[in-house]
Structure formats: structure tokens, C-alpha cells
Design a protein that fits this description.
The protein has a domain at 71-192 and 221-288: Rossmann fold (3-Layer(aba) Sandwich). Helix content is 23%, strand content 20%. The protein has helices at residues 56-61, 71-85, 101-106, 122-128, 166-176, 193-200, 232-241, 262-268, and strands spanning 32-34, 37-39, 43-44, 47-48, 91-95, 114-119, 133-136, 151-157, 177-188, 244-252, 277-284. The strands form three sheets. It has a seven-stranded mixed beta sheet with strand order 7-6-5-8-9-11-10, sandwiched between helices. Strand 6 (114-119), helix 4 (122-128) and strand 7 form a beta-alpha-beta unit. The two termini are 27 Å apart.
Length: 302
């Protein structure tokens, strides 16, 4: 999974109450907020800029950070997308493609379609180039390097949990999708069956992270930069607010569940609200059906 496409400037994307706070040794420096982004020690491109050691940029560019969600979820999403697109050749954008292995795993099911990988991380793009055509793209201005309505489908596999401003990211995905285009989104489930039990015991839920330097208060050891977690109910509300109609939410297992509990984890997939991973199929609602909305500025060079 990759946070590589985590960039889209929006007003209110971070908390404005810290305007006058100061931090040293890898913390806030000159945190004046302008045009929706922190300047100085600034949020840009999905990571804190301005010399914040251990920040998201360094994390995502670290080759040791996982940048793929695994073949199982890739197969599941590809199967859904293949049925949705049918036989007509289509353009599929894999936003946050990571090292490209997920797209490569899905290539058989999507053989008749053109898949273009997009990521923000240069390290991920170098690895992705071995598997598919990939370009650098960002969800903030100037936006993804595609014309409005250029894509028939978007794969957004385990990226949304890395975003400071998911509303802006979904807005940009809506822009590049044609009306009625397909969004295949996956993300860890905050309300997974074991997380409910962990919270009852006062334990931090799996997938949640309170630090970029280590895991605290829960099982696990790998920091991957999760900033937000979602439930099925939250996604059923968030996506329509961003201009998408939710077609279906299904569940998928998590590969790190201890072996004795894996049968239970697979069984939980039959009730998506309890599953480890949420797989969402949604479609872009044409803007005329959503009321007045200003068109985004034209993209130069698209």
C-alpha cells in the first residue's frame, strides 16, 4: 500500500489551531498556513516538509516501507472491475500503485484494458516500472496529470487511510473519472471483528498508528503511515458526499492475522462491517445530478 498519491491542497485539510505553535528538532517550524497548506514546516505532497525527520515523506520513500496491498485484494478488485467494465477496452488508473505488483497480479483479469500506474513516491515508481506504465502524480494542485473524464475506472487500493484530506483526494478522483466511471477502493476496517474486542480491552485497534517512529499500544511492529481509519458505515456516507454512488461493499481477509484466527477472519468477510479489509465499488455521479458545482481549472499539458 502506498501513500504516494497523497497530495491535494484544500482549505481546512489540517487543524488551524496550531498557527502560533513552535517546534524544534523535527517538529513544527514557522507553521504559517497559506492557501490550504502549511508553509515552513509544511504539508505538501502527502508529507510534512521543512526538515521534519521521520516524517511521511521519508517514510514513503524508505524502501523498507510496504508499498503494495498484496495479490489477494488485487485479484478481488480486478474481478469486480472486469465484470463492471465488460469487453470494451477501457483506461484504468491505479492511483497509489506502489511497486506495481498489485497491478501486475490484476493484469490477467484486466488484459483487454489499459492500466496506468500513478504514485507520488519516486522509489515506488522505479519499482513499478518493471510491471506497468507508471507516472508521477499528485492529488494536490496541479492535480493528476490526466484530463477531466479521461479514465473509465480508478483503483484506489489502501491509499485513503494515508491522506490528511480525503475529501480533496476523492474530488480529484471524481474529476478524472468519466461520468459513471468506476472507483474500486480498499482500506483497513476500523471496526474489524478483532478491533472491537481490542477496544473492549482498552487496546489500540490494529491498523491505527499514533506515531511515525514505532507502534504503540497495539499488536504489530510495522509503521506504514496510517492517518485515518474507516468503517463501512463511514464510507457509505463519505463517498456519496464526494459525488459517488456506492454500488457494493465487500470484505477481504488480512494476511497478518495469526494463523489460528484466519478461518474466523475469512468467515467475517461474509459480513463486511466485521471484515479486516473493506472493498468498495462505487460509481462517479454526473455533476448535473449533484447540483451546481464549479468546474476545476483546466489542466495544462493534459
Amino acid at each position: 500500500m502506498s501513500g504516494g498519491t497523497v497530495r491535494r491542497h484544500r482549505h481546512g485539510g489540517t487543524h488551524g489551531g496550531a498557527r502560533d505553535s513552535a517546534r524544534q528538532d523535527g517538529a513544527w517550524q514557522d507553521d504559517t498556513r497559506q492557501d490550504g497548506a502549511w508553509q515552513g514546516g509544511a504539508w505538501q505532497g502527502g508529507a510534512w516538509q521543512g526538515g521534519a525527520e521521520g516524517g511521511l515523506r521519508e517514510l514513503y520513500e524508505d524502501p523498507a516501507t510496504p508499498v503494495a496491498s498484496g495479490p489477494d485484494r488485487a485479484f478481488r478488485q480486478a474481478a469486480v472491475l472486469s465484470r463492471a467494465l465488460g469487453p470494451v477496452p477501457s483506461t484504468v488508473l491505479d492511483i497509489g500503485c506502489g511497486d506495481g505488483t498489485a497491478a501486475a497480479a490484476a493484469a490477467t483479469a484486466l488484459a483487454r484494458h489499459r492500466i496506468v500506474g500513478v504514485d507520488w513516491s519516486q522509489d515506488a515508481l522505479r519499482r513499478a516500472a518493471e510491471h506497468l506504465s507508471a507516472v508521477r502524480g499528485e492529488l494536490s494542485a496541479p492535480g493528476l496529470p490526466f484530463a477531466t473524464g479521461a479514465a473509465d475506472a480508478v483503483l484506489f487500493s489502501e491509499v485513503i487511510e494515508h491522506l490528511v484530506d480525503p475529501d480533496a483526494a476523492l474530488e480529484e478522483l471524481h474529476r478524472v473519472l468519466r461520468p459513471g466511471g468506476h472507483l474500486l477502493l480498499s482500506t483497513p476496517n476500523l471496526a474489524a471483528w478483532y478491533n472491537r474486542l481490542l477496544l473492549l480491552c482498552g487496546t489500540q485497534p490494529v491498523f491505527s498508528e499514533v506515531s511515525l517512529r514505532g507502534i504503540h499500544g497495539r499488536p504489530g511492529s510495522q509503521v506504514v503511515g496510517h492517518l485515518r481509519l474507516y468503517t463501512a458505515r463511514a464510507l457509505r456516507s463519505l463517498l456519496p458526499a464526494a459525488g459517488f454512488h456506492v454500488v457494493r461493499i465487500t470484505g477481504a481477509p488480512y494476511h497478518d492475522v495469526p494463523r489460528p484466527f484466519r478461518p474466523l477472519d475469512r468467515a467475517a468477510c461474509h459480513t463486511p462491517s466485521l471484515a479486516s479489509i473493506l472493498l468498495v465499488h462505487a460509481r462517479a455521479v454526473p455533476r448535473r445530478e449533484r447540483g451546481p458545482r464549479a468546474d476545476p481549472a483546466p489542466r495544462k499539458g493534459s
